[in-house]
Design a protein that fits this description.
The protein is an alpha/beta fold. About 40% of the residues lie in helices and about 10% in strands. The protein has 18 helices and ten strands. The strands form two sheets. Strands 1-2-4-3-5-6-7-8 form an eight-stranded mixed beta sheet, sandwiched between helices. Strands 9-10 form a two-stranded antiparallel ribbon. Strand 9 and strand 10 form a beta hairpin. It is globular. The relative contact order is 0.14.
């Protein structure tokens, strides 16, 4: 293939992709600026036109069922509080100040549905479990399910856990620092390193100080697992505070993206993302597009994007679940944290952020005969992790190479559960996670948490039905029947 200037380090295809990507981002930025200035009446007009176009193509709208009305309520819920209100749960908000000055929002579900509490912000004397979201997400992803029985957070509350849900710096609930304004580039100058050095250990220290428990159980999803792998590897004392680490769709060293043009370009030079997106938050225009597009159209756009980038078909996630959850999928994150992921993919190593100015490299070129490099970014020493680890991964997840991951983990106390036919997002939003995923999580929590005798053996439904988690049969729900949520 023909080479262009700059020492022939990129092919013509790569340059074309870079130019096209730059143009798309430019037009997206321009449109975002215009949308931000539009009055609500104009935004509503565009929304109505997209709705009319959708029904023109697929047919007129039909009367809504109970489940559709519930999905609409979840979709329209503006924050974590509204989502909890839908299902009748009390919640608490807490704020953690990290050692480097970021203010992180923590959410807490301390009580079962209908359980009265006299004092908030104190110990519940229950086993503590901490849930942490993935890349470009926030704590809402755990509670935006259309059936409460499929919500891991609500299920754990009903079993008797004190449930805490974390948020990364920069996202919807953690967009504040005592040192930097979120409009400055310094605020967004963070990577996975900072999550590992500060966000995870500081959040856990705060939770244990409030609950007065000696340790907690950690459940992470996607990047939430990578942050725990990194934090546990560089903070030996943290291993004493986490009695079990359950990794859902674990991420450590993904092979790459299904979109070959994007994959090859970003691996050639991850820092090109700075040229395209700048040095603040990435894809910050998503909420604007969400306000313009009719929900089924927005859902289709997200589904198509996931298929193109990761080859995820999303067949295990019900259409109503997509409509309800996709509006809660995106939250702010730094461009630098995404650059960090492409550095990891490029070098096939779970490494710390490389601050050295990177040269552009053709990934497919032959290595030097000597095989010796002059510089190697520090790796996260994940084999030093002591806390027990439980891995739950989908065998159709393009971001998980379980053999590579196991090679980088300690040989002791690692349990692996393969979920047949599951992709990445299926593990938190799939139609059958109350049968395929949650029982494995509960089993591991019972085995390792502090004083498991404080937990209930069964979760009772409001209609009197129940299921026993220990035999992994049937389903369970902590909530009432769907008809309660009619609007």
């Amino acid at each position: 293939m023909a080479r262009l200037p700059f020492l022939g380090r990129l092919t013509s295809r790569d340059y074309a992709a870079l130019v096209l990507g730059g143009l798309l981002v430019f037009f997206e930025t321009l449109l975002t600026s215009v949308i931000a200035l539009l009055p609500k009446s104009v935004i509503q007009w565009f929304y109505d036109r997209s709705r009319s176009l959708f029904h023109l193509l697929v047919g007129p709208p039909l009367p809504k069922s109970d489940e559709q009305r519930l999905a609409d309520r979840i979709r329209r819920a503006e924050d974590f509080q509204r989502l909890c209100d839908i299902f009748g749960y009390d919640y608490e908000e807490h704020v953690v100040l990290t050692k480097d000055g970021y203010l992180l929002g923590l959410h807490r579900l301390p009580a079962k549905k209908g359980e009265n509490r006299l004092h908030f912000g104190t110990s519940t004397r229950k086993p503590v479990v901490y849930l942490h979201h993935g890349l470009l997400m926030n704590s809402e992803v755990w509670v935006c399910l259309t059936h409460p029985e499929r919500s891991l957070a609500f299920t754990l509350v009903e079993l008797g856990f004190d449930v805490w849900l974390g948020n990364n710096r920069g996202n919807k609930y953690s967009k504040k620092s005592i040192h930097h304004n979120p409009n400055s580039t310094k605020f967004w100058d963070y990577s996975i390193d900072d999550f590992a050095w500060h966000d995870i250990p500081d959040s856990i220290a705060y939770i244990l100080s409030v609950t007065k428990e000696p340790s907690l159980s950690y459940v992470g999803f996607s990047q939430g697992t990578a942050q725990a792998f990194a934090a546990l590897s560089i903070h030996p004392p943290l291993n004493e505070k986490i009695n079990v680490f359950i990794a859902l769709a674990p991420a450590m060293s993904p092979a790459g993206l299904a979109a070959s043009v994007v994959d090859s370009l970003m691996k050639a030079s991850p820092t090109l993302l700075f040229l395209i997106f700048g040095r603040k938050s990435i894809m910050s225009s998503v909420p604007y597009w969400q306000s313009l597009l009719y929900p089924p159209v927005f859902s289709a756009a997200i589904t198509t994007s996931l298929r193109w980038l990761f080859n995820w078909r999303s067949h295990n996630i019900a259409p109503l679940q997509k409509l309800a959850a996709f509006p809660h999928l995106y939250s702010y994150a730094s461009v630098k944290s995404v650059v960090h992921w492409f550095q990891i993919m490029r070098n096939a190593k779970f490494q710390m952020y490389d601050d050295d100015v990177q040269r552009v490299v053709l990934v497919r070129r032959a290595p030097k005969p000597s095989g010796v490099t002059a510089y190697a970014p520090a790796r996260f020493p994940t084999r030093n992790i002591v806390s027990p680890i439980v891995l739950l991964y989908g065998d159709q997840d393009s971001l998980v190479d379980i053999d590579v991951m196991l090679h980088e983990l300690p040989k002791h106390s690692v349990v692996v559960r393969r979920l047949r036919g599951y992709e990445h997002l299926d593990i938190i939003w799939g139609a059958n996670i109350h049968r395929d995923v949650i029982p494995h999580v509960v089993d591991a929590l019972r085995r390792y948490c502090v004083k498991p005798d404080r937990l209930q053996k069964e979760v009772y439904m409001a209609n009197g039905a129940s299921s026993d988690y220990e035999d992994y049969t049937g389903s369970t729900t902590p909530a009432d029947t769907i008809s309660v949520y009619d609007t």
